[in-house]
Write a structure and sequence with these properties.
The protein has 174 residues and is mainly beta. It is 0% helix and 49% strand. It has no helices and 16 strands. The chain is globular, with a radius of gyration of 16 Å. The two termini are 26 Å apart. 29% of the residues are buried.
Length: 174
């Protein structure tokens, strides 16, 4: 779960166990090496349960007046090792936020939202080849607003990985 700390303007990743009275523990702190700011949103666990994928904003706080370079990171839940899956990019000098990753149940695809040119689209990446393609546009995101409910409405794969269900225009589309 991403927990927002108003006094730090930061989102921190927490882990809770499904037992009564668990108070949780920090899985990824909002303070990195040498006190650098780190923000974590939209964590999803891989189908086999060994990795977490999430959007990460490093070395700065989320802005409300300019796009910030959110990127997709994979974390090994056993060792804590992290790898940038989709690093931050810019398009004509403007940050391209990438957020809310989701891994297909068969582990072959990673879907995420990407904002370019004022529009947010769902993108899919083949995990083996890293090939990207656009699936379609989504409802407006919250990248320039308070992201207390994450940056974009949730979407999910069908159990057999054959489709993605997305909340769009007040409906659930396939």
């Amino acid at each position: 779960i991403s927990r927002f700390w108003a006094d730090r303007n930061a989102y921190e990743l927490w882990q809770f166990r499904p037992v009564p009275g668990d108070v949780g523990e920090v899985l990824r702190s909002s303070k990195g090496a040498e006190g650098a700011d780190i923000n974590t949103l939209g964590a999803r666990i891989s189908p086999e349960g060994s990795e977490a994928y999430f959007a990460s904003l490093e070395s700065k706080s989320p802005d409300f007046d300019a796009l910030t370079p959110w990127q997709i990171v994979k974390r090994d839940l056993k060792t804590g090792a992290e790898q940038f899956v989709l690093p931050a990019v810019t398009d004509e000098g403007i940050a391209v936020p990438r957020m809310r990753p989701a891994v297909s149940p068969d582990g072959q695809s990673l879907v995420f939202a990407e904002r370019r040119g004022g529009k947010t689209a769902l993108m899919v990446m083949d995990i083996a080849s890293a090939d990207l393609r656009q699936l379609g546009e989504t409802d407006p995101d919250s990248v320039l607003a308070a992201m207390t409910h994450d940056a974009i409405p949730r979407y999910d794969f069908a159990p057999d990985s054959s489709a993605i269900f997305v909340n769009r225009g007040g409906r659930i589309d396939r």
